[in-house]
Amino acid sequence: MSNVEKQPDELACGGVATAAPEPELLRPREVPLGGPRAMLVGRTLPNRDRRMVGAWCFADFFGPADIAGQAGMQVPPHPHTGLQTVSWLLEGQVLHRDSLANTQLIEPGQLNLMTAGVGISHSEESPADHAPILHGVQLWVALPEARRGVDPHFEHHGDLPVISTPEGSATVLMGSLLGGTSPAKTYTPLLGAELTTEPGASMRIPVEEDFEHAVLALSDLTVNGEQVSTGDMLYVGRGREDVTIGAAGAGRAMLLGGVPFEEEIVMWWNFVGTTHDEVAQARAEWERGREDSDAQGRFGVVRGYAAPALAAPALPNAALRARGRVRNRS
After folding, report:
1. Binding-site annotation, residues for Fe cation
2. pLDDT at 17 over 70
3. CB 3.0-4.6 Å disulfide test: which of 16, 41, 86, 301 passes with 60?
């Protein structure tokens, strides 16, 4: 998934900062995906005050959108560095293509995981014969400095651990939960899981106490007794033995967690780096390769998408700075 804003904010993440009140409700801001007529997504990470949960640095929630008779999702080829993209659908289909020549359709219950590392490009689109509803989440995971330059690679996992209880179920996308471990590659201690609850039931999930956790509500929920509306995220902090979710009807949520990410990183457009110069260099290399496909460079070329690759936005006038993962409120 790309950040397709034409004037993206500087999104600085990472690093140790002052403690924040817990729990903390993070409300999304609306961002158009793919242009002025595109569907809107709700972005809860990075947020004004809290920019990360563990290594999770970006969280978009979209739909359910009625795309019957429409093109649906259309995100042209674009670059990434220094992160992993995590695609998860509740309804519909999305076709992924990348510069490593991978072409993969993703459907509900399946995980597309792309590790950008030193650099990769990809596109995402609703296939021509797509379902009428598109609904899902797109997440990014920041890579630690020691692994930020790994070779890019792509994984598709169609058979993930699903743990069922009388109150509901958990599908483990990344990391381990309730005795199930995902085969997806991680570079920091991390957890990503979809939780569902039976109507009126309350589900208690034991969690790692040295992780910090947040719950992204995919339906109206109660999380540890607090009301959380669809699309909102509740940061529940670190040092908890469990997280409890429930709903009046059937409940659905993403549970995200990980060891607090203590590195300072800068995220701008679709790049994660540590300095302005690193991000500026990635942008310049993408533009050279985009304008001259023979040059290709570290981002390669995506074959098969019908429209031109995305141009990178102009860099801001001021130098990009790495700042703390939590805004200093003192």
Report:
1. 78, 80, 122, 124
2. no
3. 41
